[in-house]
Fold these 2 entries.
Entry 1:
Amino acid sequence: MIKVENVVKTFQGRGQIVRAVDDVSLEISKGEVVVIIGPSGSGKSTCLRCMNGLESFESGSICIDGLNLADRRTDINRVRREVGMVFQQFNLFPHKTVLENLCLAQQVVHGRKRSEAQQKARALLNKVGLAFKEDEYPSRLSGGQQQRVAIARALAMNPKVMLFDEPTSALDPEMVGEVLDVMKQLAAEGMTMVVVTHEMGFAREVADRVLFMDQGKIVEEGTPEHFFTNPQEDRTKLFLNQVL
Amino acid sequence: MQSQKALWPWKLLLAAIILMMAAGIWGATKQIDYTWRWQRVPQYFIYQSETLQPIPFDGRVHKIVEADKSALLTLESDTGETLEISVDTKTLEVSEGDELFEGDYLGSISEWRFGPLLQGLGVTLWISFFSGIIGMALGLVIGLCRISSNYCVRHLAILYVELIRGTPLLVQIFIFYFFLGTVFDLNRHVAGIGALAIFSGAYVAEIIRAGIQSVPRGQMEAARSLGMTVPQAMKNIILPQAIKRTLPPLAGQFISLIKDSSLVSVIAITDLTKGGREVITSTFATFEVWFTVAAMYLILTSLLSQIIFWMERRFAVSD
Ligand SMILES: Nc1ncnc2c1ncn2[C@@H]1O[C@H](COP(=O)(O)OP(=O)(O)O)[C@@H](O)[C@H]1O
Ligand SMILES: [Mg+2]
């Protein structure tokens, strides 16, 4: 489903070159839920952003469902349609109502009819438990509700893969649960997911595989079991000691 | 809890200060022995013009039908043609059966006409309107070029903005009229509108650029991650938010434009300012006319502010 091979991404920052993603390779098969953990600045976001073409990379290749992102001839917008992304800061469109947030891209990108888009949108809002908020503007919703809308908005495009970049980090603690519940439900339905998170409980419960990243590299990889019982690398142990 | 402070002493003070300033102006004009002739001004807004009506041929008045206000004359020429002309009853100078020569006056017609001040206001309005629309479109395009990722396009836009913002509008109007106007054979109105549009376009471009850049990066990323192309995202997501944020500075820009349009009077376009000058040459009521012209600009600009204020409230529903 996703095949990342030797990807390198560097940033030119104040005289020195930052290797944000440093020779990362990984493979994710259909229906798998992969959780990426790691300290701040280790390149987790950049890695995710490379996977849906928000960030270009210097070398290596990323294939998503057979589409090669490194190939100039690939239609990048087609890749993005297949890959949904949920951001830490929700990034809902503030000038549109909840329903419009879900319908807009369907109509613009997929050329769906208004009624068809609304039907799909309402079904998804039902699923995330926010059907009663369809006419509200995002600024009137709580953080947890906004994030659930953002998830529904990504799902409206029928993505084959969902990427989550710290979806609960900007939320008040009491709202984390409702968002994680939606994500668990999604995982149970067999969605292929890559989740960057600090929620170890979620990783333990839902992840098929956990990756630990540090300084742009994947340091350790394994089942949640492996991570929480006997991590091998020193850096992993240090990090887990800090967050658990 | 501190109760609301009484406002009325300050209102009183404000009124007193304004009154004092008015008195000061009045006193100053007393010193220089100026006679105010406000009664001369209204006729330059709107006036009744009398047009004398001559008979176009040698002939006689066949019949006159007099009504309350106007009289209908049926004229018969020596060669047998008939013609109907109406004049105001009060001014009727002939009676039935009179023999007349070509060019003799039958009477006159009076009608209401706009004076130079209202005509000038009209010119100011449509010049500002068209240069505003063109300037807005130009500014939008240049503003988008200004943040383009293409080096050449971006720098062309920067060059345009810097050139226009770095030179006086008056000089631009002269260049536009005397140089470009001659080369491309433009009439003065086209040259005036063109100069104003290009001038305001540069400022609108900067406003639009700032507006677009004030929309959080995440908005574009979210739109792109949903599969929208850059133009789709611009049109549906970024610009609507940017325009909303830029409404107050854009309003300021258009108000400036209305005021700046007074400079086109230097290329002999009879706008409100030039209209005022013409009235002064025939009335010598210098102070009255300039105060009147100022008031007319003020009314125009405050109307515009009101409209923008109303639009802002409409847009504010999503906050
Ligand atoms: N747009 C950017 N410009 C310059 N440096 C960046 C940019 N984005 C990220 N970086 C750098 O890349 C590294 C990885 O960042 P990031 O992927 O955001 O880490 P994480 O999400 O794991 O916290 C950091 O050192 C960060 O400073
Ligand atoms: Mg991050």
Note: Chain A has a mean pLDDT of 92.
Entry 2:
Amino acid sequence: MTNSASIGQPLDRVDGPLKVSGAATYAAEHQLDHAPLVGWIVEATIPTGRIKALDTSAAENSAGVVAVLTHRDSPAQTPFGEPDDEGRFTQSRAMLRDDRIRYHGFPVALVIADTLANARHAAGLVEVSYESEPAVTVAGEDADEKPDELDGGLDADVSRGDFERAYGDADVTLDVTYSTPNQAAAAMEPHATIAEYDGEELWVYTSVQLIGPAVQVLANTLNLDPDKIRVLSPYIGGGFGSKLGLHNEAVLACLGAMHLERPVKVVQHRRHVFHNAPHRGNSVQRIRLGASRDGKLQAIGHDSFMPRARDYAFAEPTGASARTTYRTDALLSRHRVKTVDISLIDSCRAPGHSIGSLAFESAIDEMAYRCGQDPVAFRLANMPDKDPSSGKPFSSHDLAECLREGAAKFGWDQRESAPRSHERGRQLVGYGVASTIRINILVKSTTRIRLSDDGSLIAWANMTDIGTGTYTILTQIAADILGLPAGQVQIELGDSAYPASCGSGGSFGAGSSGSALRDACMKLREKLVDIARKQESLKSADFDGARFERGKLVLGDKEVPLTELVRQSGHDYLEVEGKVEPGEEHEKYSQHSYGAQFAEVTVDRDTGEVRVQRMLGVFSAGRILNHKTARSQLLGGMVWGISYALLEELMLDERYGAFVNRDFAEYHLAVNRDIPEVEIHFREQPDSHSNPLGSKGIGELSISGAGAAVANAVYHATGVRVRNFPITLDKLLEHLP
Amino acid sequence: MAELSVNGQQVTLSDDPRTTLLDTLRELPGFTGTKKGCDHGQCGACTVLLDGRRVNACLILAVQCEGCEVTTIEGLGEGDQLHPLQQAFVRHDGFQCGYCTPGQICSAYAMLEEIANGEPSDVTDEDGVRLSRDEIRERMSGNLCRCGAYANIVDAILEAGQREESPS
Ligand code: FES
Ligand code: FES
């Protein structure tokens, strides 16, 4: 019988019962002894300038109001952006510090009252007048600042070979410009925080992906000793990058709690989230491709133009796909940004590859047609044998096999190659493909585990589970390595008091925190074996073939329960620490997860409405730690791909630097009926270089290609190439037969 | 003071006429399972059963609920025993972060009754209402899931619904 908790098995989520019964407590739901006061954010209505006058008297006199916190009375803070050398997640996020408005929606007051209704009502009574200053709100091809580095430490510019020359000499060329709009992460749980302060210690119940930086950012912002700050985030209602760093309501709740020395809860209203949490900036991507007549890529050029929020050093590497997906003689990838006075721009699921692949994989498709080649065959003919941007070998490379297997499973050979060849009644039918790659990262992580004499194991790390399944896969790793039933393993996460981990982001969570746990479990095994060696009765046992099964150490025909070994240690429990950090392997090899995605769409001739009829993906992400949760991650990314290819667009009012569609009636997400049958296949191949588990990142993999597969299918259905996303029906309608 | 029954328990809700059923529920210890995703009737995270029908609790004022019976996610199972829909959501991984999940499950619970009662939807054809993937997709489209668990949600509801139709 296989242990159903073994690594890879589709174990049900261990936190599943809590989540389906409403018992998992998300940030705003944490119960204190006394109900906290409730804060409501008053947002600035200009993009930049100063507060001229602020009248809070009516609000202060309103029923139930305890305080109206403004820059006039809020606790001391470090200036926004300092220190600027430790990265954006720990730099001061000061607000209500002075009369300066940083962007539309920037908090100008926090109304604190006994109830939400009272706080919200009083917030409407705060009167603010402003002295506006000229603001920069839009960035497009005029972006001309070269960022010091891109997210993930990548270089802004990469140049290999002589691009201009290769491009100039190519038989077939393509020069197209794509654009993607501002987008919202739109995690279903709005950002929320409860803060408690007793004059010395600050307790913060919040929803954040990275716990360690959350402590540090509060220490930096509020001038507190990090040892006096405790951040807890056991359940997180989705993050997708928008909760990597601690955001505005958290700082405000802390300011309120410190000011009053009473607990304060601030939950962003959905309308707040669009400005008081970060979003993904719009991009303009100019792509130039050159190929020989027989379809070999000779030149790949990618120029990216994006906004960057003032004093917030995040630049998205949209050139990531162009840099590493295909072989080429010459490569030129450049990123330029323009500083804007709008709300924070930060990572959103798969920064770089997501919107990068949307444009680049569409352009590759265009090039395949231009060369008169089948889009799958064209891609296969241009597989790289080393990383085109760095010249490093790949730790493993499985893109070609994903494409081949996907094409066979999807029935690609049934497709007529010319666009607008398939019809079903009034529907035009199209089939599209896209390559999928996502960088694989390992981040330093530690953990501590304790095996007690009752046979239970606890693991602690300040890791988070944002829906990715961390609790579950860590349970499996510990259970598998130590031969324990899943029910005896308890994983404790989301608390700054626990050992420092990588946190959740960049698809590095499972591999990094899992490898740290593996290390701890392996050390515990050694410890247990050492104890056993000292036992008289096991003197002659077969220690070379030691196994851990059924709660026992098995030595050939002898076995001893782990509980007994713990007792023999003379302690109630054994504790060990484990860690992992990136080493040579990540220097030597270029590491990625891979996939190929296929979509069938119909486009209504009369209305231009696009419906995705089916999707199929074949993915290769090393060893799969849990087939059920891994599949869900991929499924979620494919849904997102459909959503941002066809629906999502944050619309900016350029005059005010404000997003106008700040709710879900106007910011469209894919709903259940938008999602067709989705088929997911794994090509499971442990990667010996990725980490000790052999796993690779999966959370951001499918989003990096799903949208382009849909867009390419729309082209194949209609013969219309829409280069400004999302592909809404108005952009198709006038071109339809 | 509005008195109503939540999961069979008499509770007194806020008499503040501005307060929604959702906000009052979330202030009560033991009833934070009902989630707020948008506060505008646009996401379904706050779905509860009001006298047996699904409603968005953010669109109902607490004072309107005087004398009503509300069932929230906490009231679906029997004690520690999860409701078959809840079990199916776990088995089919019908969620990731879990934030939309209580709303999805309450919505699914009422939706299965709507189907059983023969109430038609946009995708119902002349053959009448039948439990199918298309019916579920259409009828669950008021419940957003940013984690994108939709296909698994459909699997879970279909399994639980079929079990209800033909209890073995
Ligand atoms: S919170 Fe009620 S529908 Fe979104
Ligand atoms: S499970 Fe996260 S939003 Fe649905």
Note: Chain B touches chain A through 59 residues (CB under 8 Å).
